[in-house]
Amino acid sequence: MIVALSISPSGSPRAGSDPEPDGGVSEAVAAAVQVIRDSGLPHELNAMFTNIEGEWDEVMAVVKQAVDVVAERYPRVGVVIKADVRAGYDGQLAAKVERVEQRLAGDA
């Protein structure tokens, strides 16, 4: 499966987490992305989501850990998840994009 994950902390940072002067939340988001990177699962970061690929149980365990690390810093956490569940396929983070690029290039 592939999961597109967006984690958005809100409220005032808990004690020990410094508020960012511009109101940003990049420190908390970076902590969540570090959990995802440390998982060893294939993933990619973009401006709006982080995509993670793997089996259901392993992906959802990483999602929970990423949310938990943000919840340690902020009292409220919004989570958006979009999942593409397709048994028997892996390597789709790159393969899906490659198929579209081939069509755009007129190769398919």
Brief synopsis:
By secondary structure, the chain is an alpha+beta fold.
What report would you give on this structure?
By secondary structure, the protein is of the alpha+beta class. It has a single domain (2-104), classed as Alpha-Beta Plaits (2-Layer Sandwich), CATH 3.30.70. The chain is built from three helices and four strands. It has helices spanning 26-39, 56-71, 92-104; strands at residues 2-10, 43-45, 50-53, 76-84. It has a four-stranded antiparallel beta sheet, covered by helices on one side. β2 and β3 form a beta hairpin. α1 (26-39) runs antiparallel to α2. The radius of gyration is 16 Å and the shape is elongated. The model has no long low-confidence stretch (mean pLDDT 92).
Task: Output the keywords.
108 residues, alpha+beta, Alpha-Beta Plaits, four-stranded antiparallel β-sheet, 3 helices, 4 strands, elongated
Spatial strand arrangement across the major sheet = 2-3-1-4
Which whole number gives the mean pLDDT? 92
From the 3D structure, determine the CATH topology. Answer: Alpha-Beta Plaits
- Give the beta-strand count: 4
Rounded to the nearest angstrom, the distance between the terminal CA atoms is 25 Å
Q: Compute the number of helices.
A: 3
Strand count, sense and closure of the main sheet? 4 strands, antiparallel
Q: Are there runs of 5+ residues with pLDDT below 50, and where?
A: none
Structural class: alpha+beta
Question: Helix proportion of residues, in percent?
Answer: 25-40%
In angstroms, what is the radius of gyration? 16 Å
Specify the CATH class: Alpha Beta
Principal-axes shape call: elongated
- Specify the CATH architecture: 2-Layer Sandwich
Count of domains: 1
Strand content: 15-25%
What is the H/E string?
A: EHEEHEH
